[in-house]
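hey can u check if this looks right to u? its 499 residues, i copy pasted from the old doc so theres a chance i mangled smth
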Amino acid sequence: MSRNENDLRSSRRSDVPLNTTNSSNIRSNTAMNSGSKTFATDDDWDTPASNPTESSNDSTTGSIDGAQAQNSVTTNDVIATSSNFDSMPIKPCILRGLFASGFEKPSPCQQTIPSALAHPETGIVRDVILAAKAGSGKTLFFTVAALNSVEVDIKKPQVIIVSPTRELAYQTFKVACDIGSFAGVSIALHRGVGNKTKKEPTAFLRGVSVKSESYISFGNAREGEEQIIIATPGRLLDIITNEKGVRISPVKTIKKIDTSFTRLFVMDEADELLSPKNDFQDTIAKIFSNIPTIEFCQKIIVSATITDPVLEICRQILQNPVQILVKKEEINISNIKQYYVGLTEEEDKAACLLDIYSNASIGTSIVFANTAIKAEYIYNLLKEKGFSAGFIHAKLAMDERDGIMRDFRNGTIRVLVATDLIARGIDVQSVSVVFNYDLPPSLENYIHRIGRCGRYGRVGVAVNFVVEPNNSKPKDIVTLEKYYNLDIRPLPSLDILKM
């Protein structure tokens, strides 16, 4: 065993007392520090923390990123936050993965990522409980924390992420692979297989190996020794307790997974995992009792809602947790007309955009894309056709960005192709139309993107390009409508865009 492995096996959070008592009951697995703060009640969380401070890189209580997210985050503590990914204590390889995946500006939820990371000077980490609605960026929050906590030289499982459904586990696996593509980290997805298991496309990234429907891995590691384990509860219990190993195919078995190096345990959708209304609670209790480090490893609890039963369990299993509530932001978009254009294939988007600009007299507009590469591609298409276009993203130097925004504000550039770098806080009153060439990675950013038009009571138009080969209402549009209580209709004619 290497020295690093010995260090990790014996390491613990310095703010948590080591308790060797082990129990099959989840409520007694981890004793609460008598000096820890009480978890906020629902009434407490309805009221912003007192004396909020506007800060982007310093400790803050109550609000995140000043006016952009005023009162959108409530916490019980003074925590480190940042309005930019590159000012967080994140490994450079993970930052590279974030930017390559199209994440340039953290949402209010993601601005609290530093609260889940080891303190840069002391190395101390704290338990975290995060309550935020769907689409707020919770998955990225704990995925970054997970990737950042892995000691790459130790070829043992160090992080366990539990999701209540196969589909959610797969979604988390995909995000982790995308963000961790440059980190040299190995990741495994373990899911139970049933009649309703969806066979998702797995060719989304190089390095992904499909062992079976129940086991997919990413990176270079021996089977069963991946550094991050993402699993559904029943399958996780099986792979960490079955002495004979677990069958992953009709002819292949992996040995029982060693959990003695676990340094971070994440429960996604904890309201489902810890609810007394289902069978997960007993399963989680058994999982806890089979992880030797569970009492002093970091734990992150993520949920959309915090019910009283879940709250009671959190009091028992977490040590002095940082408690964060992210409220859904409310932005007035009543004066923005929203439409979508359904296309058969992704390749149709470029031709559709050029057709619109060629046949409609559009004033000042923004075209949003999810990556810098795609933004430049769209810019080149427009420029070749003679349109007054520019592009902006985080990979440009600051003086270049300033010059582009100056030209956009004074009208020299009429069409600005951009990533989410300018989805928040950019105010150009002349913008009348916003195109989502790609729908944003998070639901929350949709409202910020389209909010770039229709400023100060003016009428604006938002047009979303979506791929829907079945000629029915796209699922992504239906999701947006339900989340924000919107009515997004097919674009009836180009006349609507003439402003």
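The two ends are 69 Å apart (CA to CA).
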